[in-house]
Amino acid sequence: xxxxxxxxxxxxxxxxxxxxxxxxxxxxxxxxxxxxxxxxxxxxxxxxxxxxxxxxxxxxxxxxxxxxxxxxxxxxxxxxxxxxxxxxxxxxxxxxxxxxxxxxxxxxxxxxxxxxxxxxxxxxxxxxxxxxxxxxxxxxxxxxxxxxxxxxxxxxxxxxxxxxxxxxxxxxxxxxxxxxxxxxxxxxxxxxxxxxxxxxxxxxxxxxxxxxxxxxxxxxxxxxxxxxxxxxxxxxxxxxxxxxxxxxxxxxxxxxxxxxxxxxxxxxxxxxxxxxxxxxxxxxxxxxxxxxxxxxxxxxxxxxxxxxxxxxxxxxxxxxxxxxxxxxxxxxxxxxxxxxxxxxxxxxxxxxxxxxxxxxxxxxxxxxxxxxxxxxxxxxxxxxxxxxxxxxxxxxxxxxxxxxxxxxxxxxxxxxxxxxxxxxxxxxxxxxxxxxxxxxxxxxxxxxxxxxxxxxxxxxxxxxxxxxxxxxxxxxxxxxxxxxxxxxxxxxxxxxxxxxxxxxxxxxxxxxxxxxxxxxxxxxxxxxxxxxxxxxxxxxxxxxxxxxxxxxxxxxxxxxxx
Length: 562
Known about the structure:
Elements: H1 2-28, E1 32-48, E2 51-66, H2 89-110, H3 112-116, E3 120-121, E4 128-129, H4 134-137, E5 145-149, E6 152-153, H5 157-165, E7 172-178, E8 191-197, E9 200-203, H6 205-209, E10 215-218, E11 221-222, E12 225-226, E13 230-232, H7 237-241, E14 248-252, E15 255-256, H8 260-269, E16 274-280, H9 285-288, E17 295-300, E18 326-328, E19 333-336, H10 341-345, E20 352-356, H11 364-373, E21 379-385, E22 388-394, E23 415-417, E24 421-422, E25 427-428, H12 432-460, H13 471-484, H14 486-504, H15 512-525, H16 531-561
Antiparallel strand pairs: 1-2, 3-25, 4-11, 5-6, 5-7, 7-8, 9-10, 12-24, 13-18, 14-15, 14-16, 16-17, 19-23, 20-21, 21-22
Helix pairs in contact: 1-2, 1-13, 1-14, 2-12, 2-14, 2-15, 12-14, 13-14
């Protein structure tokens, strides 16, 4: 199947490219004598409308052959407009440009089915906000529903992300709806607020790697709403009730709790009574998949919890254990992978992360996100191990990576914490068609800009040529995407199509960009290139392409060996 995926992927890319040349030639009156998928000996073919359509033996390319493309054998005088080299420069330019343009348009078709499949979308409801972040400082709190930003209606989470991303360090006027606190008797109706939030400016990490700057706005808010994760003191009422380390508590007597502080408050209020806790254990596969499947735990609380501020011993997490024997486990390291950045830094199981780069976090999700913002720097972890606090230096750069290596450039952080989240119920996508077209266009534009930036980085030395891939890499991509399903395959198809379109526009002889250079030369000199000039240009292009092909094949082979 992998071979079939590869042939299908390559075949579609080549067909679309050559179809662009073919249709443009027909549109401007130039005769196409051959349309071939592949090079070399003919496998099958047929003739229609004066064009011979071929499927050839070597599937690594394709071509359109035009009337009059041999300067030594021009068409008859009356047919000069039908010949490629004898027609007007503008017609030739249209024909040549059409191939890359069709490749750049193909993603608009390839990405569309994925966008159309999103019939429901997450609502614009704050799941959690990082203390000290722009959302928190502006007054946004978990559970807030965003209604409008700067006068524009906001319904979906993506609406908020788009506006925030486009406005770094600019004040945003946000209208929110805030529900009353759950469990209040006779509680009032929802409240509406106008808040001012100023997104933090970050630089897109991918573009920064390529030597370019793309500013984005971030408010440090997440759609996910984490549940409080606990540690259990041995011999405590919590352990006797059946609670375990790293259990996630979702409710107390049917009332939702969204933070460790809320959990502790509820337990204090019910001191001396029996309570029912809904918890999700660490071995609960449904919870790991993102949907919490809770079991009920009956726990009898001591008559009176330890008064706030009283002198008590502290546990591994540095929290007051309370008489119930429960402490905060959100930042307790569950596991450290061998040979990871965390292991190299000295992080260990059961360490408690106190701060990252001097900043304390209320949700490990934001801490982990911070690591990905700048993967080249040293990150300083403040951790507590037992009663000792220390600072450890973690760097995600892979010391064994070099350009062209099969090894990843960056290591995973390599430590795990227990994080269980819930999301609000998705709501219908009320404008599916319009939304799908907008998202498809945005994604295509992002891929195009990213590809151009990557090519520019290649020529400026920011990206090594050893990182380029050839047919073997494309084969691996096709095989992997094909196994993942239609949407993944179409995604890879769209991405590679943009790459093919951009690369074909480079001013390299034989490529479409090389033809455009010759047309410009002809327009400036006011005469077509001589046969000698064409020969030199063609041989130069052939040599360049052969060298590139040899180099990328070498890269592919070395990656396979690696």
